[in-house]
């Protein structure tokens, strides 16, 4: 209980009067002059989300780049537990209900773990005209104050599924974090659809698709030990009787790095992977292609719109909007450029049909 109260007090100070220099947050000391009324962007991540070298780290990068571009203060909070994250959120809403200053504040929540709290409490921000909210990775707009944003992976993953046939005959293992997270489910659906439609394109190797989940718990599967990754890869090879060629497509946030390390350390050069979220095609030995989620540049754009007062109530962005993309690694040598361009247009059309674009 004392720890919770202490966290609440510290966070209250941060939300109202912190300054930032590089990566260090400074709290004012008694008698010290308060900082200027510079707009503040606060991000509250899911537990252990920051440091995943994937989606959350890209958000961090985008927010810091926006702060540099527009001259903002930032506060990026990485709670250790769901309880701590909810404490941060409750403190945030309480502070904004009673605030009397004119400092503009944007609060960003990228984790679906806080969905129930956000939807129950977001109207409390209506009491403060200077506070706004961006809730990410949901297709359901908020009732009341706040904007929502969803980046659809379907089209980019559709391209990846088609292009997975460019590897030599073998097995493609689609590793999904869990069957409940919308972005993960739609990524898997896009990949499977593209895999099944691949007969329409140039490369038609005999490839088997095997899908498995890391967790059957909501928001589970995003952290995993290297030993578990090694076990899963070995099970795949034993189960499917494949020795020479295994392609891992890990849609599981930072967990993908465990699979990549396992491929390098235990299986040698006969196995490959897809880079997910970031561009990993510099590794031309093992990375067949990368499927990008450009959430860093999206964050810069959204913060700019917030400053201008034009942040939309909801947007779903995808391949057509350059919010996602596919970067070819060694498979580029086997697939003609014109066919990749044609496939991209098909993927954009299929993605658009899902959301009536």
Q: Could you walk me through the main structural features you see in this protein, from its secondary elements to its overall organization?
A:
The chain is α/β, with parallel strands linked by helices and 357 residues long. It has ten helices and 14 strands. The chain has a six-stranded parallel sheet with strand order 4-3-5-6-7-13, with helices on both faces. Helix 5 runs parallel beside helix 6 (182-196), helix 5 runs antiparallel to helix 10 and helix 7 (226-240) packs across helix 8 (256-267). The chain starts with a helix and ends with a helix. The relative contact order is 0.13.
Key features?
single chain; 357 residues; alpha/beta; 6-stranded parallel sheet; 6-stranded mixed sheet; 10 helices; globular; disordered N terminus
How helix-rich are the residues, as a percent range?
25-40%
Biggest sheet, spatial arrangement of strands:
4-3-5-6-7-13
pLDDT < 50 stretches: 1-10, 16-34
**Distance linking N and C termini:** 49 Å
The H/E string reads: HEEEHEHEHEEHEHEHEHEEHEEH
The beta-strand count equals: 14
Question: On the 0-100 scale, what is the average pLDDT?
Answer: 84
Largest sheet: 6 strands, parallel
Indicate the proportion of strand residues.
15-25%
The shape, in one word, is globular
Ordered list of secondary-structure elements with their pairings:
Blueprint: H1 2-17, E1 19-21, E2 24-26, E3 40-44, H2 55-70, E4 73-77, H3 82-98, E5 105-109, H4 115-121, E6 131-136, E7 147-151, H5 154-163, E8 170-176, H6 182-196, E9 207-213, H7 226-240, E10 246-251, H8 256-267, E11 271-277, E12 287-293, H9 295-308, E13 314-317, E14 324-328, H10 337-355
Parallel strand pairs: 3-4, 3-5, 5-6, 6-7, 7-13, 8-9, 8-10, 10-11, 11-12
Antiparallel strand pairs: 1-2, 12-14
Helix pairs in contact: 1-3, 2-9, 5-6, 5-10, 7-8
């Amino acid at each position: 209980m004392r720890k919770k109260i202490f966290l609440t007090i510290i966070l209250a100070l941060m939300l109202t009067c912190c300054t930032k220099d590089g990566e260090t947050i400074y709290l004012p000391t008694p008698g010290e002059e308060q900082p200027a009324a510079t707009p503040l962007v606060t991000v509250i991540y899911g537990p252990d989300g920051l440091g995943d070298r994937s989606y959350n780290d890209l958000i961090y990068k985008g927010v810091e780049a926006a702060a540099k571009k527009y001259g903002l203060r930032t506060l990026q909070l990485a709670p250790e537990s769901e309880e701590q994250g909810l404490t941060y959120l409750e403190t945030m809403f309480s502070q904004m209900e009673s605030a009397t200053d004119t400092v503009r504040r944007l609060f960003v929540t990228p984790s679906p773990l806080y969905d129930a709290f956000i939807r129950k409490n977001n109207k409390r921000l209506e009491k403060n005209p200077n506070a706004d909210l961006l809730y990410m990775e949901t297709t359901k707009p908020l009732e009341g104050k706040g904007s929502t944003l969803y980046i659809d992976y379907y089209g980019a993953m559709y391209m990846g599924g088609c292009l997975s046939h460019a590897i030599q005959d073998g097995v493609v293992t689609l590793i999904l974090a869990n069957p409940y997270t919308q972005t993960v489910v739609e990524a898997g659906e896009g990949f499977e659809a593209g895999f099944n439609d691949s007969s329409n394109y140039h490369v038609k190797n005999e490839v088997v698709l095997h899908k498995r989940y890391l967790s059957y718990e909501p928001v589970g599967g995003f952290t995993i030990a290297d030993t578990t990754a090694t076990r899963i890869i070995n099970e795949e090879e034993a189960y499917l009787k494949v020795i020479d060629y295994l392609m891992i497509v890990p849609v599981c946030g930072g967990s993908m790095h465990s699979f990549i390390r396992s491929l390098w350390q235990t299986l040698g050069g006969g196995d490959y992977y897809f880079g997910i979220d970031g561009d990993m095609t510099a590794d031309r030995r093992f990375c067949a292609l990368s499927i990008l989620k450009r959430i860093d540049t999206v964050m810069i754009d959204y913060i700019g719109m917030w400053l201008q007062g034009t942040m939309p109530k909801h947007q779903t962005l995808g391949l057509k909007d350059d919010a996602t993309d596919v970067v070819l690694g060694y498979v580029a040598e086997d697939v003609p450029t014109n066919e990749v361009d044609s496939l991209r247009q098909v993927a954009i059309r299929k993605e658009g049909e899902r959301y009536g674009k």
